[in-house]
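Sat 14:20. Reprocessing the chain from the morning session after the first attempt stalled halfway. Input below, unchanged.
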Amino acid sequence: MKFKRNSPTAKQRGFSLLELLLVIAILSLIVGAVFSQMGDAQRRLNAEEMKLGDFQEARDFVDQFFRDINQAGTPNIRMYDPTVVANGFDVTNQTSLMSNSRLAVGLVSIANDSITFEGSVNGTGTVQSVTYKINGSGACTYCLQRSQVDKATGLPTAQLTNWGTEINDLTNNTTTFPIFKYYQYDGTQITTLPVDITTDPATIAKVKTIQINLTIRNNAIIDQKTGQPIETSFEGEVSLNNCSMASTGQAMSCQ
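Finished this time. Tokens:
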């Protein structure tokens, strides 16, 4: 009788070329999907970091604006001893008072895309003329700029400017989506703009609250959800101690 010994490896065989190719294809799909997800996650992270940066830029601007506007109208004629005022200022001539470089008139002009005021924003007592305006220099269509100069003797509406850029890439349509909105003491919005201290002093004197709305669009980063450049919005609101020298006898919040 003969016995047949089965070898342990007799029934073992390797993978065929087709099976190897199939495994490689599946692994390639899995690795590709993983790297695709990692790429999307990295792009989302970059977009969120850019949004955060734009938001912080807008917040820093609004904080500076709030600090500046809180000094509007200081120092003004109400801070002087009446016995001294009579000798140092022409109290019978309102134009002369407004033109005096030692006195801050407060709000000078307001518009959808700009605001000008006078005050000691650097805290030294020297009066500065400060303006925030879209494209104030005429050289950057979508930037919000700030000007600060020491007040010279002359009308507030005729002061010089020295522009520096605060925020770039704004998308605000100043007609339908203004940067600045103004409200009276009773909450009524002032919509007839622009006005200034010489053309409509009564309106200037009634401003109590200023609202700021900013939208920044960064064309360098695309939002993965919308397929559009990312946008960041910021809103702020400040109530004024409106010590405007706008009109004799007008109700003012600092009185």
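The chain has one domain: 34-239.
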